[in-house]
Design a protein that fits this description.
The protein is built from seven helices and five strands; from the N terminus they run E-H-E-H-E-H-E-E-H-H-H-H. It is of the alpha/beta class and 186 residues long. The chain starts with a strand and ends with a helix.
Length: 186
């Protein structure tokens, strides 16, 4: 059975997800698992796709970066797929195929290159942030929870619990506790 997996990092990448789904359908995937989550987040649909595999099945992805977040993660996925006596195929230009020894070698080499690229990108990002900070141009991420501090204190005074405040204001529980603690320290 041909099984497909499609992923984009954000909900705004609708066209990218649609393109992956189209490509997976065109090659004949009978079952396709899809999700829109960051590669570093929990990916329940990827886990479901791997769990769904049976002996002789092929798991298709359109690009390697849609599947794994690191070389170790890729290795873990490939090992799990192998244990199920199934295969992995990556559809991009190289058409990687773990049904062959050459395909496995190329997959490992490209996985290493992809991890190297990501490390270099993060290093350049850190350098850019450091430079912007030094020039006084970097302001960082907007502090959305801090903007809601008055509402947090008001709801707390009304007897609402921190978990409920977080849900009501659509912020993290940790932010609510942090703001309440900062208010106590004043």
């Amino acid at each position: 059975m041909l099984i497909g997996y499609a992923r984009t990092s954000t909900l705004e990448q609708e066209a990218g997800l649609e393109a992956q789904l189209r490509d997976l359908q065109e090659i004949g995937c009978e079952k396709i698992f899809q999700e829109q989550v960051s590669s570093v987040a929990q990916r329940p649909e990827l886990n479901r796709a791997i769990d769904y595999l049976r002996e002789g099945d092929i798991l298709y992805v359109t690009k390697l970066d849609r599947l794994a977040r690191s070389m170790k993660h890729l290795g873990d996925i490939v090992e799990t797929v192998k244990e199920k006596q199934a295969y992995l195929k990556v559809m991009d230009n190289l058409g990687l195929d773990t049904t062959t020894a050459t395909g496995e070698l190329v997959l490992n080499v490209l996985g290493s290159v992809a991890q190297f690229e990501r490390s270099m990108m993060l290093e350049r990002q850190r350098e850019g942030i450091a430079k912007a900070k030094a020039e006084g141009k970097y302001v960082g991420r907007q502090k959305t929870a801090q903007k809601k501090a008055k509402d947090i204190f008001k709801l707390k005074e009304e007897g609402m619990k921190p978990n409920d405040i977080a849900k009501e204001l659509d912020i993290s529980r940790a932010s609510v506790y942090r703001i309440l603690k900062a208010g106590e320290d004043k």
